[in-house]
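Researcher: Next sequence.
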Amino acid sequence: QVQLVESGGGLVQPGGSLRLSCAASGIIFSVYTMGWYRQAPGKQREMVATIGRLRNSNYADSVKGRFTISRDNDKNTVYLQMNSLKPEDTAVYYCHKDGARPYWGQGTQVTVSS
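Model: Next structure:
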């Protein structure tokens, strides 16, 4: 079975940093584009960052310059380094596997508040 297990969420003050991890299993990890998406209360889920097989990446305008997506194919893990966090970054963050059979992780809560 495909599994995407997120970790690293929590409560952080504005301007702080957090690193999310997504450990994948049941797939040939290096083949797929992976991504991080988020959903704030009352809002639609939105793309935050994606990273392809060749480690090409793209970001939502709202996080450019602050967030960095990366992947370690040996560990079957994708990361999201989040710096200079803002209250508007508060959301549940989901790991995503692209492809013909897309898959979502369970989500991890990120709360940015003073």
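Model: The CA atoms of residues 92 and 109 lie 4 Å apart. The chain is about 0% helix and 50% strand.
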